[in-house]
Amino acid sequence: MEIKLLAKKDLTKDIQNQLSKLYLQLNAELKQLSLERILKDDDYIDVAVCFQDGELIGIAMMANYKVVSGYKGMIEDVVVSETHQGKGIGRKLMELLLTQAEKRELDDVLLFSGHHRTAAIGLYKSLGFTLKNSGLYIKKYN
What we know:
By secondary structure, the protein is an alpha+beta fold. It contains four helices and five strands; from the N terminus they run βααβββαβα.
């Protein structure tokens, strides 16, 4: 098993196809952007991936940005293949992103999780995340 940060130079059509298939397990209705487009700007996003025998079995992303209140990271799109869940892959992906957050000297790392995702919430809490007393609002454009 190999867990690493994905770089532009690593992109192949096969990796893109595997990612598209993996994301169907997260949300079949999800509109996907290409990895090439996501990784266009080096400092904007970190993509942690897990491969086993050449197969992409897990991925997690952290968007990086700055606002008046500081440097932030937003973890998004964490998904581990259904056949590989419960093996610590999600934890390793998250730990890699949190290490990257420290390297980038971020002030905060945020994430959102559905209340029904009890295993994911347990993982996030074990990594030091706490529930913030706030509401999440969304306005969809597409």
